[in-house]
Amino acid sequence: MTDPAVIAEQWLSHLAVERGLSANTLSNYRRDIARYLGWLSEIGRTDFSKVSTTDIENYVAELRRADPDTERKPLSAASAGRALVVARGLHKFAVAEGALEVDVAAEVSPPQVGKHLPDTLSIDEVAALIEKTPTDTAVGVRDRALLELLYGTGMRVSEAVGLLVDDLTQQDGVLKITGKGNKQRIVPVGTHAQEAMEAYLVRARPALSQGKTHAAFLNTRGGALSRQSAWGIIKAAAERAGIAKEISPHTLRHSYATHLLQGGADVRVVQELLGHSSVTTTQIYTHVSANNLRAVWASSHPRA
């Protein structure tokens, strides 16, 4: 008998050691695997070799259904699709390792996901977001530096809070960013971000530091700033600027990409700057730019 739980632990170990996935990504994989294994247990599939394509199709369908008895809400198409990706990865690994002869998950299609264009800010809104952040305290200087760096480089919030002091003091106009899967990329840093970071490192960080960590961005207790706290800084800045749009931790990243494309940057250059493994991921921003072009045309052309 092939125990799916054993295969799952082997796969997670492979992802951590061979693929070098981050702890956060591995945690998400572990959660989705646990959900899939729980489903297999519910339908009596304790032998992995007995799982069928229909079982997996039913699993995806079940994820999309609500359960009034347990008050479980249905997963969105995107979330169910990610759960399927994990289940398919597990089966693919089992076949590669010789534990299974046939990959019954390979042909299972994910649920259709409607195209969602990421929320972005205008250039004026970004300016207000940053400039309305006061710099009369160490915390304010830190917040301004974080906002400038996020918009100036397009890095993820998780990448920003993972920076070390040495990463910033040795930049010389560029910054080496460690992204998902420990992949590194080089991005240019503009003068606004450089000046904000210099002010933070000289004036603010020494006031916050208690010698606890080499993390670049610190909280008020001298420890490393968390992703949740960084997200709170972005949200508070949006409120100060009077921005009513939906704001997410990635809003400045989305705005960075959109403004580059609107300015004439090539989509493959933006792909490299964002650290996307596929240009397909980056191309969603070209839809945003096309929408903006249509809006300008509609308001300007006499025969629109």
From TrEMBL:
Classification via Pfam families: Phage_int_SAM_1, Phage_integrase
Subcellular location(s) per record: Cytoplasm
Main location: cytoplasm
Gene Ontology molecular function, alphabetical: DNA binding; tyrosine-based site-specific recombinase activity
GO biological process: cell division; chromosome segregation; DNA transposition
Family: Belongs to the 'phage' integrase family. XerD subfamily.
Described function: Site-specific tyrosine recombinase, which acts by catalyzing the cutting and rejoining of the recombining DNA molecules. The XerC-XerD complex is essential to convert dimers of the bacterial chromosome into monomers to permit their segregation at cell division. It also contributes to the segregational stability of plasmids.
Matching NCBIfam families: PRK00283.1, recomb_XerD
Protein name according to UniProt: Tyrosine recombinase XerD
